[in-house]
Amino acid sequence: MKTRKFIFPVLAAMIAVGAAFATSEKATGKSKPVLATFNVDSEDATSYHVTSVQDPDCGNGNDVTCKISSTATPDANNRILKTQATATDWRSAD
């Protein structure tokens, strides 16, 4: 009888801890990346330099990229790699 008095509380505690871990894992799982739109100030061979200022001529041409969509965030120099972005709008060359 002493064994049953010991095993059942331990088993119940293990089930409760397991359920708590399972619940917390679902709540803290990785979130899906968000597709964001960025204004492009300039570009080089490998990256776009993004800015918060929208070019007033964006959408009036097809020479230079002026807007991109990406799930990546800009680095410390406000650049996003071209491999991580999709050009969505263009302007005429200056």
From TrEMBL:
Signal peptide extent: 1-22
Keywords for the protein's UniProt record, in alphabetical order: Signal
Pfam families recorded: DUF6520
Protein name (database record): DUF4333 domain-containing protein
Provenance organism: Dyadobacter psychrotolerans
